[in-house]
Specification:
Chains A, B: It comes from Streptomyces bingchenggensis (strain BCW-1). 2 copies of one chain form a homodimer. The first copy, chain A, has 2 domains: about 40 residues, Orthogonal Bundle (Arc Repressor Mutant, subunit A); about 140 residues, Orthogonal Bundle (Tetracycline Repressor, domain 2), CATH 1.10.357.10. Chain A is built from 10 helices and no strands.
């Protein structure tokens, strides 16, 4: 985003290479983080011990302490990598729309919902963020905030152009991000809807939420 | 609801007396459940032991086992009492609108958001429901489903009357309930917005989501 200096970009340290924001290869996490993720999902943050993670990952305890310091470090790494990835994708999705506000909005919502489904395992860890220590929480909040600001800017722009009708761009942004986040609560890979189905439907629902009557230009065919 | 036989009503065993769906007295839980709630919130389900709850509540361990069987029983009691309460309130809110679909919809959304804020502590336990054992999960899902069906029926009715415009009443219902549920993730009693402010704003946002252009009749003044 032009308004941010590169050094201050909270996503910069989580850069991974993303070719196409709609294309999701299976998530590849380092074995320690993959094991931590499974444990957090099964037993929650407080129900997980670093010893369990070491056992599951097949590494020594000191190795985990060396790489991640402690259990908190594992949660931080997982949350930040997920949020960093969706932020990168959302910026790409936004850019692709080339300034057309309806497409920017549709792309970004689609992208966020694709993340909540294709990356449901890490995305659903968001409910564990209350266990972050204050400094880590602040850092994670900055990443989240960047995503919120991207969407807010688009909604405000749409309202300014007279394409959207909202009472408050801030409230609507928060409501829409909550709507997307909640998908992780019910989405199941074996369910009847694919991530692409859900993303498409949510983009339509979100367009009504911002009072848009015009549908955006047709999207490229789904993969 | 007329379509349900009284015996089959999943809310019936959670009846508490509610005078006015908009009025929330502070939540009064039996001491054991109040202690369990605090522990679950601080340490998560798996991070909580029945021993911790007994200590906090100042009761003996056998007393908890006698009353709630085990830790699972504590979570079930909390989740069901919260969902039972919101369901009762939502039905009252719906009834009050006397069949006017815009008011029914506005009231029910307002009611759900009031629950997510005034009852944030119990409502946010929803993220722990993945730890419910299958039979308990099924029972809780039935309560949730009843709320979903109430909202779905209103949206479908609004669409049938030509007042709402949605692509799918089912998708929109799920999206809106997710939007409301997500409020528990950021709401704070010391924040700048009161539960009534948030409920009012979300009712407005939700009206756009269902494509309603007409605002409902003014609501009674907030308490």
């Amino acid at each position: 985003m032009a308004s941010m200096t590169p050094g201050a970009d909270p996503a910069s340290e989580h850069e991974t290479h993303i070719d196409e924001w709609r294309a999701f290869a299976p998530l590849e996490l380092p074995p320690i983080l993959a094991a931590a993720l499974e444990n957090f999902r099964e037993h929650g943050y407080h129900g997980t011990s670093v010893r369990d993670v070491a056992r599951r990952a097949g590494v020594s305890l000191p190795m985990i302490y060396y790489r991640f310091e402690n259990k908190q470090g594992l949660l931080v790494a997982l949350l930040e990598s997920a949020m960093g990835e969706v932020l990168q994708r959302a910026r790409q999705a936004d850019k692709e729309a080339d300034g057309r506000v309806l497409d920017r909005f549709g792309n970004v919502i689609e992208c966020i919902v694709l993340h909540m489904t294709h990356r449901a395992a890490t995305a659903s860890l968001d409910s564990e963020l209350r266990y972050l220590e204050p400094a880590n929480r602040k850092k994670y909040a900055a990443l989240r905030k960047a995503l919120e600001e991207l969407l807010l800017e688009i909604i405000a722009e749409g309202a300014a152009e007279g394409l959207f009708e909202v009472d408050s761009a801030t409230d609507t942004t928060r409501a829409l991000l909550g709507m997307c986040q909640a998908v992780t609560g019910w989405y199941h890979p074996d369910g009847p809807l694919t991530p692409e189905d859900i993303a498409d439907r949510y983009a339509g629902i979100a367009l009504r939420t911002v009072g848009a009557r015009v549908r955006p230009t047709p999207r490229t065919p789904k993969m």
